[in-house]
Structure formats: C-alpha cells, structure tokens
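Team,

Forwarding the record for the chain on the shared tracking sheet. I've put the sequence and predicted structure together so nobody has to dig through attachments.
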Amino acid sequence: MSKAMRALFQLILISSTIWFCATCDAQQLKLYCEDDRPLQFFDANGSLTGLTVEIVLEIEKRLGLHDKIMVVPWARGLDKLDHDANTVLFTMARTSERESLYQWVGPIAEVEYGLYAKADSPIQIRSLEEAKQVESIGVYRNDIRDQTLSRLGFKNLDRASSNISSFKKLMIGRVSLYADSKMGVSALARASGFQVEDVKQVFPLFKSGLYIAISKKTDPQRALQWNAALNQMRKDQTLQRLQKKFLP
C-alpha cells in the first residue's frame, strides 16, 4: 500500500471514529423520577425541585448535558429502567436484591425506614411478627418498603400509587401504620397540612443508602462520568449544601 493510500485510510478511520463518538455523545438519556418529597417534587410555582433533582441537574450541567427529567409513577419508571438503554431513575435505595440489576451513582444520602402511627395511636410494635398482625400498613406500590416487607412475609400491606396518598390514609384512619423514613414523613406531613409531631415511629425497619440508578443496558462509561461529577460535587461541598437545603 502506498504512503498516500495509507494516509487516506488513516484519515477515513479517524473521521469514522470521531463520527462514532459524536453519535454516542449525542444519545440522550431518558431521566425518570417519581414525586417523592423532599427528593423530587413540584414547588408552589409548579417547578420540579428536590434534593436528587438538583443533584441530577448539577451533574448534567457539569457534563454538558441537557436531558429533560420526566415525573412518572414509580412502577413505570422501574419498567423503563429494567428494559431500556440510556435510562436513569431516581431516587432508589440500593439493596442486595437490586445490586446486580443496575448501575449506581451515589450515595447521595442515607435514610432509616420505620413504621409510623398517628401520635395518639395506642399501637405498640416490638417485633416484625407483631407488625404482621396489625390490620393494615400503608406502602408505596413497588417501592423498597413494599418489596422488603413483601419479601419478609407481610400480608397486610395496603399499596397506594404515591407516598402522600399512603400518608393521608394514615391520618384519616384508613391504614393502621405507614412505612417511610423520617425524612419522608417530615416532608409529607408539611405537604399534607400536618406537623411531623402528628405522627410517631413505633418500630424501626432498616437503613439504606439512596442512589441514582442507571439501566444495565447503558454504556458503563456514563455511570463513571456521573459518579466522577458527583465526587467533584462532594469535594467542592456542592452536595453537602444541597443536603442541608432539602433534608430536615
């Protein structure tokens, strides 16, 4: 092969590589989240905000991305995450059962889940077996609380389409207990016109780190880039400022 032909071949190869990389970079991410205070919610002006929303927006800004966040029911977002490439879902508790199913960005916070009752409730829970005997426990359908309690053999779960729906059921006596984190209960109480003092934790369940999940079919380089951006946010205290802003 002549020198001129080799040069032409190299030029074609380089051009093809640049085109391929540009195509990869141009692939948009589909960002899904649920309405779940204080992690992601609509404020009084109708703007989407919250701890994880602001973290995701900052990561996208640092990576030069402009993908739109779509608010959907958790079950729909989970289905997209399970089956589609270039898909992101937040906020998700990272568990041993989920570990190999997704790519993880985080942690962004840690929460402790528990069973909550109305402040004037006489219910006392000393074990999981006792919790299984109460009339009903409100949970968010397909959420980590629903999945964990179902796996533990609970048959008394009242599944709702949102956390705020479950919380309101507790306050009007439709369910005996409600499973959530202290962080979630505090935000939901204010959003529902109540005070956090109107409920009490009657039994601790488990702790979990909160993460942003990326679908397994997505290029692993994406997760590496997102984690690198999040680590930068830790170093320059941006993450800590957002945590103080949104977490009670």
